[in-house]
Amino acid sequence: MKRRIIALLLTAVMSFSLAACSGSKEKATEGGAEEQYVNTYLAADPTTLDPSLRSDTYSSDILMNSMESLIRVGQRDGEYTFVPGDAETWESDETGTVWTFHLGEDRKWSDGEPVTADQYVYSLQRTADPETGSPNSFFVSPIKNYAAISEGEMAPEELGVEAPDEHTLVITLENPMPSFLESTDASVFYPQRQEIVEQYGEQYGADFDKFVYNGPFKVTEWTHNSSIKIEKNENYWDAENVDLDYVTYQIMSDTAAIMNAYESGQIDVITVSSQEELQKYQADDSNVHTKISGGTISFAFYNTEDELFSNANIRKAFTMAVDQEKVNDIAFSGLREPLYGWIAPAISVGDKTMRSVAGDTLKEMRKETLAKTTAKDILLEGMKELGLGDDPSTLDVTFSLAGTSDWFRTFGEYLQQMYKEALGVDVKIDFSEWGIFSDNVYSGNFQLGFMAWGAYYNDPYDMLSVHLTDFNQIATGWSDPEYDKLVLGASQEMDEDARMQMYIDAENILLEANVMCPFATSVSHQFTKSYLHDKYAEYGQDNLYFTHEGWKNVYVEGR
Questions:
Q1: Contacts of 266 (CB under 8 A, 6+ apart)
Q2: How does DSSP assign 388-430, residue by residue?
Q3: Which strands make up the sheet holding 227-232, listed edge to edge?
Q4: Widest CA span of the chain, in angstroms?
Q5: Which conformational region is residue 77 in: left (phi greater than 0), alpha (psi within -120 to 50 degrees), or beta?
Q6: pLDDT at 538
Q7: pLDDT class for 537, splitting at 50, 70, 90?
Q8: Is 133:53 a contact under the CB 8 Å cutoff?
Q9: Rounded Cα–Cα distance for residues 167 and 145 (Å)
Q10: Percent of the chain whose predicted confidence (pLDDT) is above 90
């Protein structure tokens, strides 16, 4: 079984990139009267700039700003829109299986070389190649022959991508996929140059000078675990509409240090993680409050290959022990929204969100279950099945957390209290930095852990696919053929009502198996200095979640 780690977002402190929001606003800084720069931060060092191997949100933030895909998902007048990237135009055939992208002839890399269709072909083939070990290969799984390539039955060159000429890319899918165009905004659809990949080998993307860029910015400095600087890419096809000269990221994870940096003017942006911080910055008119919610979830997940958590009743007991409203109020300071399903509230099928149709599935399941029994009784049943006696305090259970900050330590104490009260289990907490945590999860060296994950594009397949047998990107070890059938079938189903029901049925299987336990939907409360602006809207309102324009439309006025 293939086991990979997907891009996972930590929850206490997050990276920040500004997205366009509704409305229209002309830039008021024509003539360059003001120095155009932004100072911000990332909570951890990016792991790589290699688009095929990116596996964390910090890398994504940098790549989003320094690379260009076929399209960008933007926001205009309060609605999602597809903005040209390297592709000026695109169309599909009447079957919906053949997509043709027409690249602009003025697209260039940061070193002046032209962006060509064959570089997209190479990039997609490299990601599909099982030898690459891409953690994001599920994005290319709809492309023709991917399944056979992933199993080693076909060569990567057989992937359904071709370049009839330098500026035409043709992608052939196995079946129609309603959300395919949106998915082409993902990092695995960034072009790559074979000669650069081969020149640097395993060091490709490991540092700023071992990579080449085709996006609005290029990385010019990277002091690992300290800072990153991106500067305007003068060779970018739309450079005349990029106003920022540079953006500097400080690598900071300590909440107090981040607050001090924001208040002293060292950084222009902050994401708050407590009611105290929220109220503090809301009271100061020099701060602009922007909310982005609905697409990122936090959850506990179980290693179903662990001796204890291989038992369905043990997993169910730990899930039934969680009160999402209390978790949100106590652990998350009421800043998030309780979540009772795997699919985040912002994700839709057609014009309906899946949560609005599916409802609070886990909440109803818990209500029905706990009307008949208790979480502790379910645990005792599981212990009996495993021959472990009837004393929950004798169980050896370790909950893994990917952080060592004060927030994580307080969260760990809360988890211990919650499971002790509901189950009588004395849970140990293992604190580790992200790199160690992800290595342990990838190798199966954990029992249960906590992560957050943000959907990349607006379709339930994005989130449900991470649990497919061939992907299993959260490394739970769980597999169900009926689940696979429903998810894959729904991703190809053109009838919206039928697709919605198939996704709901698949989520029900996942929830009933207690592979993971959703906690909350993350709500990003971000404050910016009043001199940061966006060309299409002012900050200070709720933004759509699925936009990926990064810093491209941001400018400074009135610093």
A1: 39, 250, 260
A2: --S-GGG---EEEES--SHHHHHHHHHHHHHHHHHH----EEE
A3: 37-42, 246-251, 227-232, 217-223
A4: 76
A5: left
A6: 66
A7: low
A8: yes
A9: 23
A10: 73
Question: What does the pLDDT read at residue 555?
Answer: 95
pLDDT tops 90 at residue 127:
yes
- Give the span between the Cα atoms of 545 and 177, in whole angstroms: 21
The predicted model gives 493-518 an average pLDDT of: 96
Other residues' Cβ atoms within 10 Å of the Cβ of residue 286: 9
- Beta strand 398-401 with 448-454 is parallel
pLDDT for 281 beyond 70 = yes
Nearest to 119 by CA among 84, 163, 149, 62: 163
Q: Amino acid identity of 337?
A: E
Nearby residues of 383 by Cβ (< 8 Å), 6 or more positions away: 314, 389, 390, 392, 395
Arithmetic mean of pLDDT over the chain = 90
> pTM for the complete prediction?
0.76
Q: Are 452 and 296 in contact (CB under 8 A)?
A: yes
Give the Cα separation of 52 and 66 in Å (integer).
15
Q: Secondary structure of the chain: what % helix, strand, coil (to 5)? A: 35, 25, 45
Q: Is the pLDDT of residue 518 over 60?
A: yes
Region 180-198: what's the mean pLDDT?
94
The pLDDT tens digits for 17-39 are 443 333 334 444 444 458 999 99
Instruction: Give the C-alpha separation, 508 to 214, whole Å.
Output: 42
> What tokens appear for 249 in the block?
């990221």
Torsion of CA 340, 341, 346, 350, to 10 degrees: -130
* CA–CA gap between residue 119 and residue 295 (Å, rounded): 31
Whether 62 and 17 have beta carbons less than 8 Å apart is answered as no
Cβ(337)–Cβ(520) below 8 Å:
yes
Please state the φ and ψ torsions of residue 228, each to the nearest 5 degrees: -140, 140
The encoded tokens of residue 497 equal: 């009502």
Which residue blocks in 329-404 are alpha helix, DSSP H?
Answer: 354-358, 361-370, 375-386
Separation of first and last alpha carbons in the chain: 54
| Nearest CA-CA partner of 168 in 85, 123, 104 | 104
Q: Buried b / exposed e across 411-443, counting CB within 10 Å, b at 16+?
A: bbeebbebbeebbbbebebbbbebeebbebbbe
Q: Give 190-247 pLDDT, tens digit per residue.
A: 999 999 999 999 999 999 999 999 999 999 999 999 999 999 999 999 999 999 999 9
